[in-house]
Amino acid sequence: MKNKFVKFFKVLLLVFVILLLLPVVYFWAFGFIYKGSSDDGKIAYLQKHQLSLKENCTITDTTLFSEVNKTSVFLFGEEHGYSRTQIFDAELLKYLNKKFGVRDYFNETFSEDADLLNKFLSTNPMDLSILRKTIPNLKEDIPQRKNQEYVDKWVSIYQYNQTLPSDKRIKVYGLLGAKKDYKGGRDSVMIANFKRYQKEVDKSASLYCSTGYGHILQNKINDHLPFAGWLKSNKFPTVSIAHISINSMMYMPKEYGMPVPDSEETDWANVNGPMVYFENIVNVDKACSSSIALFRLDGSNSPYRGCLDLVRSHSALSFVQGEMIPENGKSTADYYQYIFVTKNLAGPRKLK
Asked: What DSSP character marks residue 339?
């Protein structure tokens, strides 16, 4: 009887160990298959077309976007919740203002919050109490933006705006429109509001839109046409910059609606795994020589004109985040022309 019990206990222990190891083995095997294959040609191209940025994300290379020779819509699509994305957003806006005269700034926010932001930008002296009124509303917009970098971003834009003539200052537009009118998918809402705002913008100058990653893709993904795809199909010259996060911590506030650790941070959401892998992300990882960098993907003889690296993705947990399947016959450079890479970064600072 005793031997039977010992044997049963050993079998039970073995089953428990196997069940414990199954997720580890699954994620390891998934990463082994989908992290991609190293390609010396792609790595060399990326290294040649890399612009490293400092922690403050200031863009000092005045040749950036020198290929753009007509009035265009620039779009930055962030992976929400990562450090430096909002700081880069502000610095990109400043750079576009200096180089292309961009004054109209479209943001993935509601028009009520855009009105508050414009009111904040017009105060003199600066009135932070107005900016703080927008913070609780981020729960309905993009909750991962509720961190200190959100405040730092708008203070930076405010300070820059003060250096401009009063009739040349930056104005914010809420791509989500009025809260009471919000219904339907985000892309369709953005398209409708972008159309509505066209009578207010300076049509002689380029525009800048700051949204989430999925909205800046310029062709169909999973048979759906995103906001930037609509722009491109309606003859707006379009330049998209996609955010790529590698080995970094993401801020996930408790109001995000998912189970999160007490720290409200996770390293599971990077595009180099373990939950999602952008196709052949390994080449970007190997080419990136700094923590923050920009890469041009549509330069001369770019290998990204003949593949779908990065755009196609594979998900280990498709019920949490599904795979991204691009259109046949398209290339990475057809979807976006630049990537903004953050690598090995801690999460953004919590609100003071």
From this structure: E
pLDDT digits (tens, 9 = 90+) for 108-137: 999 999 999 999 999 999 999 999 999 998
Cα(128)–Cα(257) distance, rounded to whole angstroms? 29
Structure tokens at 73: 């819509």
| CA pair distance 320, 269, nearest whole angstrom | 11
Q: How are beta strands 207-212 and 104-107 bridged, if at all?
A: parallel
Peptide bond into 274 cis (omega under 30): yes
Residue ranges of alpha helices (H) inside 170-210 are 186-197
> pTM of the predicted model, to two decimals?
0.93
Per-residue b or e along 245-269, where b marks 16 or more CB atoms closer than 10 Å to that residue's CB = bbebbbbbbeebeeeeeeebbbeeb
226 pLDDT more than 70: yes
Token digits for 153?
């971003």
Q: Cα–Cα distance between 273 and 56 in angstroms, integer?
A: 26
d(CA 254, CA 51): 35
Contacts of 266 (CB under 8 A, 6+ apart): 249, 250, 252, 260
* Element counts in the chain: helices (H) and strands (E): 10, 12
Q: Where are the alpha helices (DSSP H) in the chain?
A: 2-34, 40-48, 85-100, 111-122, 128-132, 148-161, 186-197, 227-233, 281-287, 332-335
Does residue 316 register a pLDDT over 80? no
* CA-CA-CA-CA torsion sign (155, 240, 283, 317): positive
Strand partners, 244: 341
pLDDT tens-digit series, residues 265-287: 999 889 998 888 999 999 999 99
| CA dihedral of residues 262, 84, 74, 322 (deg, nearest 10) | -30
Q: Point out which residues pair with 75 in neighbouring strands.
A: 209, 240
